[in-house]
Automatic annotation (TrEMBL):
Domain of life: Eukaryota
InterPro entries reported in the protein's UniProt record: AsaB-like (IPR044053)
Protein name: Uncharacterized protein
Organism encoding this protein: Fusarium austroafricanum
Single GO term (MF): oxidoreductase activity
Entry similarity comment: Belongs to the asaB hydroxylase/desaturase family.
UniProt-listed NCBIfam families: CmcJ_NvfI_EfuI (NF041278)
Length: 267
């Protein structure tokens, strides 16, 4: 969820327009990742270790509008969908983590259990992104709040997903790992229409597996692992123009069924 700091513009006619020549950030292919694994800290370490070892390069990409495709989108095809989903939560309610857990997360759990036909849905985490006015220029200092991501990435790797399952489900973890499981992300804007740092999505069928790079994401008490993606001219990127308050982007991070589009690249 991202809250733009500016006052939103008035909602008018939604245009189904593409956006040519949009700069997206990708990891540089020249980094020495055959011998050194990329990483980035999500806190300030006590030592003088650099906060990351990434070299970001931006490439201009053509962002295609999702608007004409919404009725035909499918998680198992393109890897993402657009849902109309109301919530009882008001803007200020999202500043209260207890309300998010008790109300909003419960709403999502009920809705997607029915919508996806899942046997069980277990919420893993949530994050509120409040874009600072100075973003993305913080003069080398980390922001106090999560900001929009500046690197194309997948939230979690398949192997890290198995570790999450084993940690959460313990005795029945191996049984779950032998069945089909997914990690799905739901992205909702809180200030609309979205014209400021919208989310971009890449069609996984256009991604070369050789372009994916595993990356350590380091927190104070644990290390997560996600995937970054090198730029490739064959990739197809999309966005949802003027995303409304009740429109949520739903996309897969991981799908254990390798016959499906099983990874999703958001930015």
């Amino acid at each position: 969820m991202t809250i733009p700091s500016e006052k939103p513009q008035e909602i008018g006619v939604v245009e189904h327009h593409d956006q040519p020549d949009v700069p997206l950030y990708f990891p540089d292919r020249s980094d020495p990742w055959n011998t050194v694994k990329p990483y980035n800290f999500h806190y300030i370490p006590k030592s003088d270790v650099p906060l990351h070892n990434l070299l970001r390069l931006y490439h201009s990409v053509h962002l295609r509008s999702l608007r004409p495709l919404v009725p035909t989108l499918a998680l198992d095809n393109q890897g993402f969908e657009v849902h109309r989903l109301d919530t009882r939560m008001k803007y200020d309610d999202f500043k209260n983590e207890q309300l998010i857990e008790q109300v909003y997360v419960s709403e999502l759990e009920r809705y997607f259990t029915k919508k996806l036909g899942a046997k069980k849905i277990r919420p893993l985490d949530f994050q509120l992104r409040l874009r600072g006015r100075e973003f993305p220029h913080f003069q080398g200092k980390p922001s106090a709040r999560p900001q929009p991501s500046l690197m194309t990435h997948v939230d979690v790797t398949p192997e890290a997903t198995k570790s999450i399952i084993r940690e959460l489900y313990e005795g029945v973890a191996e049984q779950i790992c032998e069945s089909r499981y997914q990690i799905i992300t739901v992205w909702r804007p809180l200030r609309v229409p979205v014209r400021d740092w919208p989310l971009a999505l890449c069609d996984t069928s256009t991604v070369d597996p050789g372009d994916m790079v595993e990356n350590d994401v380091i927190y104070p008490n644990y290390v997560a692992e996600n995937l970054m993606i090198h730029y490739n001219e064959g990739q197809k990127w999309y966005w949802l123009p003027d995303q409304a308050e009740d429109e949520v982007l739903v996309f897969k991070a991981v799908d254990s069924d390798t016959n499906k589009n099983n990874l999703m690249f958001p930015f």
